[in-house]
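User: Please run a holo structure prediction.
Assistant: Happy to. Please share the sequence and the ligand.
User: Here you go; the ligand is magnesium ion.
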Amino acid sequence: MQIDACIFDLDGVIVDTADFHFIAWQKLARALGSDLSEEQNELLKGVSRRGSLERILKWAGKELTEEEIQHWMAVKNNWYLDMVSGMGPDDVLPGARSFVERLRTKGYKTAIGSSSKNTPGILKLVEMDDQFDAIVDGSMVKKGKPNPETFLLGAELMHVLPANTIVFEDALSGIKAAKAGGFVVIGVGDSPQLEGADLIIDSLKEIRIEEIRKQLDQLASKV
Ligand code: BG6
Ligand code: MG
């Protein structure tokens, strides 16, 4: 296959913030008299702030007014920001920084496709804000993951075709979004939810784009 670009999800692929989101959502669920299990949290990964709160409320059998929804979204985000505020360049996940750097040296385009409205701030904290040709965050799309809009906008901004672009994702919603957009998708991590990906890797540590292309070509020739 021809690969022109790579789009990276942020939380759980480039930075280890997935646990901070979980801790903050669980605290919120408990504050509302409910709870949030790790299994439920898997279904929140990649989902927008509002979408996540709506799911938690549904699981808890609760309804809130619009004002209360706005209040709790702000509270959750403040808890989250408190946890990430101490992050720095060392908090990039193993291999992520060097993989992105190598891609760019080799002439591939790179982008971030994240549901998080905190994306610009987090990329600044870890000093990776200058490593991408396009950065799409939760404030730039009408429909979040699993809708493909996030990744389609990333491809459009890079002037590349989805079929020639690899998306790296750690969440079910993101894998569905990438597939729906016609991208090649690589699942990152060990979640059972990654099954729909074209290929699954443990992390970005020591991976090579040439090796990935080889494996994707082998898979394509088996179809
Ligand atoms: C995604 C995370 O990247 O962004 C979700 O996986 C999070 O857990 C979502 O809810 C929205 O993030 P934020 O930072 O805008 O609240
Ligand atoms: Mg993620």
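Residues 5-15+91-222 form a domain with the Rossmann fold fold (CATH 3.40.50.1000).
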